[in-house]
Each structure stands twice: as structure tokens, then as C-alpha cells.
Amino acid sequence: MFAEFLNRLTAPAPAPLGAEDARLALAALLVRVARTDGQYDPEERRRIDRILVTRYGLTAPAAEDLRARAETLEAEAPDTVRFTRAIKDSVAYEDRAAVIEALWSVVLADGVRDDEENALLRLVASLLGISDMDSNLARQRAEAAR
């Protein structure tokens, strides 16, 4: 199921994703960031679910289902650089910009910001075309919302 999706996403000239596929790709990116520190704890999963409920207007069970599919996709997705660049090429800027704050929210969910997470967020923001300044502002908003 995900092999065809990943082939489309990482094609040399990917077509823009439909709304459902964009949700799945961005949810997988949330999962990838949550797993960066080697721990994927219940608070991070709950935070991802809340983000999906709020961002996409999903019910709690629908958000859990999307996260579960995203977990599978993330495990099969190529390296972060190719995966994120593919998202940039196929997801509208507004969606990419808004997800940075959500990514920071996931990083902050366990109350610990480690160097690996910081480095990954800097890389992801850059690959998504989001400036360091905008990413920093997104982090501040995520911290204030905690």
C-alpha cells in the first residue's frame, strides 16, 4: 500500500498530493520527529493525535487511525532528506509552514529537547523551505501553548 505512495512521493517530478495523502505525509513527518530521540512515548503519540484532530478537524478515532498509518509509512519512508524534500515538492507552502509549529509541539511533548531533535528540526525546516527565524517563532508559539 505504502510502496506506491512512496514511489509517487519520491518521483523526480512528483504531482501535488491530494488532501488525504498530504495529511498522511505530514503525519508521518510528525512521527519521524517524535522517534528521533529513540523514544516514542505515549505523550508524543497523544500530542500527534491532538495535532491531527485540531489541524484536520478529525475525530479522535480518525486521528489515531491516521497516526497508525503514518507510523507504518514513516518506517518505510526513505531518509529524512529525500522524504522531506518530496513533501516540499508536493505539499502547499501554507501546510508546510503550519506543520513546523506542530513538529516543535511534538519535540516538546516529553519535556526534553535534545540535540538530535534540534538538529532534525533545523534540517526539516530548511528542507521544507521554512526560514530559521520562522521556525524559531513556531517553536516559541509551541512552547507558549504547552
UniProtKB/TrEMBL annotation:
SUPFAM superfamilies: TerB-like (SSF158682)
Coiled-coil region list: none
Co-chaperone DjlA N-terminal domain sequence ranges: 23-140
Family matches, as InterPro entries: DjlA_N (IPR007791), TerB-like (IPR029024)
Stated name of the protein: Co-chaperone DjlA N-terminal domain-containing protein
Organism, scientific name: Roseovarius nubinhibens (strain ATCC BAA-591 / DSM 15170 / ISM)
